[in-house]
Design goal:
184 residues, 32% helix
Length: 184
Amino acid sequence: MKTERVKHCFFTNRIVLINASVPVLQNIINGDEALKEFLQISIPGDWTEFGQAPFKYALERIQKQGSDARWWSWLPILVSENKLIGNCGYKGAPKKGIVEIGYEIAKDYRGRGYATEIAGGLIRNAFKDEAVQEVIAHTLAVENASVKVLRKYGFTFTEQINDPEDGQIWKWVLSRHHLLSENE
């Protein structure tokens, strides 16, 4: 992995999360071969189900609005295989003390605890910023693996929302206060 090409990264137990800065995002948009060459990593064909749209959106926000890349896309690289195993990150900089996380794992890597590890890393990374008072997430409105991950970290279900694109979804919230009271 070419870490000198990465501005920000952080580690969990088995994964290094690489921030998708402008050069990384441009290579994602240029295709898997370009990204593979740029970061010197292996890439499975199904590493994201969302395609390039979220990365193009993040690139636009960073370039046109001067948004901080650290509040957008991150790439989880499984250290033992030097392989990209999904996509994760935030849906923009904190607003009114709230930041939203999201994550996905490539099909061949699901069921191994990577989503839990990645979510934990994103949560810890978000709360390093004193301005962040809550981390939120949205899931489909069904009991699934993502719901289990959020519950492991103490997220609380707050409401069901009718999303124009996704239909019924659930909103989950984890507050800084909740984390502090659990650690006392």
